[in-house]
Amino acid sequence: MAEQMSVFTPDIVYQVYMNDFLAANVSGRDNLEKEFSGHAAQIKTYFTLNGQHNVEIDGDTASGVSFSQIKMIRESEGKDILTDYSVKYVDKYVNEKGKWLIKERTGYFIIVESRVVGN
């Protein structure tokens, strides 16, 4: 989890929208790591495929839009449940000491589908 957190600034602002509902609003890398760790503890396995990523750079700041397909398997009542997320991320970046970091991220979970797999 620490490796994933290294791409964010210490004062990251991370928001998640499910349809038009604000489902998460987290400030600070430490708080974000706690939030992610809580969710990760429930996941048996996951797969992420990152797609198109457009960035506009303006000096030491930038903004970008990227798209991801995320698949997560959780167990519920003895069954494996696959949840498939289609996500659009809108980001603001800063260049700190030669490294680009995410300062703000808003995730728009556009399509969320769950189903029983295997078993």
Task: Give a topology summary.
Blueprint: H1 2-5, E1 8-18, E2 21-27, H2 29-40, E3 45-58, E4 61-76, E5 79-96, E6 99-117
Parallel strand pairs: 1-6
Antiparallel strand pairs: 1-2, 3-4, 4-5, 5-6
Report what the structure shows.
The protein has 119 residues and is mostly beta strands. The protein has two helices and six strands, in the order αββαββββ. The chain has a six-stranded mixed beta sheet. A hairpin with a 2-residue loop joins strand 1 and strand 2. It is globular, with a radius of gyration of 15 Å.
Count of DSSP strands: 6
What is the strand content? over 45%
Query: Biggest β-sheet, characterized?
Result: 6 strands, mixed
Question: Uncertain runs with pLDDT below 50, 5 residues or more?
Answer: none
What gyration radius follows from the Cα positions, in whole Å?
A: 15 Å
Overall 3D shape: globular
Spatial strand sequence of the major β-sheet: 2-1-6-5-4-3
Class by SSE composition: mainly beta
Q: Share of helix among residues?
A: 10-25%
Order of helices and strands: HEEHEEEE
Give the mean pLDDT.
Answer: 93
Number of alpha- plus pi-helical segments: 2
Give the distance, in angstroms, between the N- and C-terminal Cα atoms: 29 Å
